Amino acid sequence: MVAFKTLDDLEAKGKTVLVRLDLNVPMEDGKISDFTRIERIIPTLQELARKQARIVILSHFGRPKGTRVPEMSLRPVVAGLADRLGQPITFANDCIGPELAEQVKKMNLGDILLAENVRFHPGEEKNDPAFAAQLAAAGDIYVNDAFSCSHRAHASTEAIAHILPAFAGRNMEAELTALTAALENPTRPVMAIVGGAKISSKLDLLFNLIEKVDSLVIGGGMANTFLNAKGVNVGASLCEHDLAGTASDILAKAKTVGCGIILPTDAVLAKEFKAGAAHRIADIGDVAADEMILDAGPASVQYLNDRLHSTKTLIWNGPLGAFEIDPFGDGTVAVAREAEKCTQSSELISVAGGGDTVAALAKAGVTNGFTYISTAGGAFLEWMEGKTLPGVAALDR
Q1: What architecture is domain 7-171?
Q2: pTM for the predicted model, two decimal places
């Protein structure tokens, strides 16, 4: 567990606080189209404003690769952020330099300024100490509230934390508390659900989880690779046939460490991957050569739902089927709603994360019903893989 300082430890009054946020948000027609990430960082900004700090926001937007790209300016984010915050925000044309320093000098206590995209400078992604020093020159204190960016050793997430007194914002604190509770010191038994298209992208995750959880549910296209490794004919399903040996290794290691692997016993099958396609439900051993496994079947779903009631901690990353297209999201939705029910009745601690997972849980209407849903993609995955996140490690005191 990282021993980090929080806003509770911060004397902010009269200080200029550099706050690293993740404002790399979806935009449509020059306006923010999804406020999920924005909502998570509002508490930190409001608290610092109440504590009468001068707040300078640092963030990136897109991948300008160290050059000034007008289309990747953070300026269009100002209006939406200010509206949700209920407070005006000024904008600085750069994140370093004398012009920014002048603007900071003129700020009143409680004011908020958004600095231009840190990735307009090549030193950001190079984690250049000299660039980090230029960033740090604008403030007295550093707060990292961008867990979703903290798997990268960049100047505004890692190097700067060694220059200024560093603290975790409320969103960062919530992420670390939830993930520690789920993986490092969980209430047992622990179940992990891992889905998605391919096991090749989640090998580190699978090998790490089988040593930490009591049961591992494998769903989506990934399950087909494991079924194939066990000699099951998966027909025309998405399957990494060349990874049959790796899948067998994971199954063998899971058995050695006492982690139960749960694969679907029945499935929703179709010959076409399209909305409303003709489909049928069959046992997993009854897949025709021209059929695809596109969702977990009702017996598999019922089994998982029953298991949830004897599970104390659930970690979820990835859907059980092709949830984007009806009717192949029914399995994911049904299990998500049962997990919500168990969470709300205090039977279960439920932690989920990853882009597809958040979208699937939103489709199920349960985003407010889990103990914690992480908005981080790569950072959430790397934490679950057991990797050190540079931006988090830099907060360790």
Answers
A1: 3-Layer(aba) Sandwich (3.40)
A2: 0.90
Question: What are the residue boundaries of the structural domains of the chain, listed by start?
Answer: 7-171, 186-384
Check if 7-171 and 186-384 are the same fold: yes
pLDDT tens-place string over residues 95-133 = 999 999 999 999 999 999 999 999 999 999 999 999 999
Known catalytic residue at 198: yes
**Known catalytic residue at 50:** no
Nearest to 165 by CA among 51, 57, 390, 11: 11
Residue 37 is among the residues annotated as catalytic for this protein? yes
Q: How does pLDDT run across 267-300, given as a tens digit for each residue?
A: 999 999 999 899 999 999 999 999 999 999 999 9
286, two tokens: 């009854």
Q: Residue 193: which of 212, 226, 217 has the closest Cα? A: 217
Where in 153-273 does DSSP place strands (E)?
166-168, 190-194, 215-218, 260-262, 266-270
CATH number of the domain located at residue range(s) 186-384 in this protein: 3.40.50.1260
Query: Which one from 62, 110, 355, 386 is the annotated catalytic residue?
Result: 355
Q: Quick check: 316 and 357 in contact, CB under 8 A? A: yes
